[in-house]
Design brief:
Layout (H helix, E strand, L loop, with lengths): L13 H8 L4 E7 L9 E7 L8 E6 L3 H6 L12 E7 L13 E6 L2 E6 L8 H14 L7 H65 L8 H11 L2 H19 L1
Parallel strand pairs: 3-4, 4-5
Antiparallel strand pairs: 1-2, 2-3, 5-6
Helix pairs in contact: 4-6
């Protein structure tokens, strides 16, 4: 866990903003410049950018107040240990014209770091850079026995993250599908109920015709002829409409 605290509740510190900026690089906070026996100093942050073309190291000096900036003279000793050097301050604490031409300046703006002036690349002193990197390797690095295993661990995390994302997507798709299936099932149940009521309607008509003396299997032409001849056609038509109205209300 970081040893620093945010300047204000809910707002990241300058160091936290730097670490977030270099999330994919080798970031070393409060980085010593070598052995304690040699009277080493301490950079607020040192970064090895993950690139080979060209190899790039960055030194950061954090100044929260103007008085801190004016009092500190040791930062000039950090210049030979990195390719790029930046001051990081709240907005307006330090102005670009107050710094040497090759030093960069970043201002904190809310949750972001704004580059007020880009640092000029310099070639570090090889011996000084080796001392700093030796400290990093000896005191701040965990060496893994199997590089591929370390990479597989990272890959496994990516796999689990992807699995969780896909699980959420499957859950969403499953919910949509279940809703669709439920609607289809309800529609099928309504159709089955409608078919059942229609069958009952036909049975009622068949029963009425049998009560009126029509033989089972009589055709519509014969039924119409006989009813019309007996003056019962309108009576039967009214009865059929009543049956249809009752069964239609039940189906709804």
């Amino acid at each position: 866990m970081p040893s620093w605290k945010s300047e204000q509740e809910g707002r990241p510190s300058l160091e936290e903003l730097l670490e977030e900026r270099h999330a994919k690089d080798v970031y070393v906070g409060e980085c010593k410049t070598g052995s304690s026996w040699d009277g080493c100093q301490r950079l607020d942050a040192w970064v090895l950018v993950k690139t080979w073309s060209p190899c790039t190291t960055i030194g950061y000096e954090v100044k929260r107040t103007r008085s801190d900036f004016l009092r500190d003279q040791k930062w000039q000793g950090y210049l030979p240990m990195c390719h790029l050097f930046y001051f990081v301050t709240p907005r307006g604490v330090v102005q670009p014209e107050e710094l040497p031409a090759d030093c960069g300046l970043m201002w904190a703006a809310g949750r972001r770091l704004l580059t007020k002036r880009a640092a000029v690349r310099r070639e570090p002193d090889p011996e000084a850079l080796v001392r700093l990197m030796t400290y990093v390797l000896m005191s701040r690095t965990r060496i893994v026995g199997d590089m591929w295993e370390a990479n597989r661990t990272a890959t496994t995390l990516d796999v689990w993250r992807k699995w969780l994302d896909e699980k959420k997507e499957r859950r969403h798709v499953g919910h949509v599908a279940s809703q669709r299936i439920r609607r289809l099932l309800e529609e099928a149940q309504r159709e089955a109920r409608r078919a059942r009521l229609q069958a009952e309607q036909y049975e009622d008509i068949k029963r009425v015709l049998q009560e009126l003396g029509f033989p089972e299997g009589a055709g519509s032409w014969e039924i119409r002829r006989r009813l019309d001849g007996n003056g019962q056609l309108e009576e039967i038509r009214g009865l059929a409409q009543s049956i249809l109205r009752v069964t239609g209300d039940a189906a709804r």
